[in-house]
Design brief:
alpha/beta, 17% strand, 11 helices, Trp Operon Repressor, Chain A
Length: 248
């Protein structure tokens, strides 16, 4: 079972997230155990201060190193921790490969940044990873932390009903997922592609491979450049490309 610890200034923000949907299911199945820690519990003054003005001046406040170090060190005394992750707009962009790696960990700590960020000594001497969920800035790391936790939970054994749902989907092999259709086969004059109604599994696979390729080229050309740089996904990507090129 993976154990995840979240350090935040707003622990209440996680109440509904942890109590519903897939993450709640993952905890019920003992696939993951998520613990939320209030950073202010590791402050030592009467005001429970965890931030201060930046040296050199400038707007905003910066999270002090002391409470963050104490919080992580306290967690490590009680649990095996493989990664300490800081959610920050300056981090590397989270990919499905990253999520897959984290899902195999014994324990992780996720730090939710706030204000103008954290003391640089936290980056240099405490965290092992800095992750971002996109090239934009939010008020804090709480929402990004939830994104990371849900993405991880989906990959844990037994959480998603059909394991193929997590294997054969967008970004699993640096390609976007093919279009999906359901009943009725004709809606307002729009028809489901004939290949999907053919009952021919090989034809369906070829159609899906071709659509996956086309959708990736049109919507995410940036992924194309990385296809051959990812050794782990190279064979599967090559297989799908060949299937798409051989489509009738």
């Amino acid at each position: 079972m993976l154990t995840a610890h979240v350090i935040t200034l707003f622990p209440g923000a996680f109440d509904s997230f942890l109590a519903h949907s897939l993450v709640a299911r993952a905890q019920e199945f003992n696939a993951i155990s998520i613990h939320v820690h209030d950073l202010r519990d590791f402050a030592h003054d009467n005001h429970r201060s965890v931030d201060d003005m930046p040296f050199g001046g400038g707007p905003g406040m910066v999270l002090m190193p002391g409470p963050l170090f104490e919080a992580v060190e306290s967690i490590k005394q009680e649990a095996d921790i493989d990664r300490v992750i800081l959610m920050t707009p300056q981090g590397r962009l989270m990919r499905q490969k990253t999520v897959s790696e984290l899902s195999k960990m014994r324990g992780i700590v996720v730090i939710c940044g706030r204000y103008e960020g954290v003391d640089e000594r936290v980056r240099e001497h405490l965290v092992t990873d800095e992750l971002s969920v996109g090239d934009y800035v939010l008020a804090g790391g709480e929402l990004p932390a939830m994104v990371v936790l849900e993405a991880i939970a989906r990959l844990l054994p037994g959480v998603v009903g059909c394991s193929e749902s997590t294997f054969d989907e967008s970004h699993s092999f640096a390609m976007l997922e093919y279009p999906q259709y359901t009943r009725p086969s004709k809606f307002r004059g729009w028809k489901v592609p004939k290949a999907l109604l053919s009952g021919d599994h090989q034809r369906i696979e070829r159609w899906r491979a071709r659509q996956s390729l086309l959708r990736t080229l049109l919507r995410r050309p940036d992924l194309v450049a990385g296809w051959w740089n990812d050794q782990g996904g190279r064979d599967e990507t090559q297989k799908r490309l060949l299937a798409a090129l051989n489509d009738d």
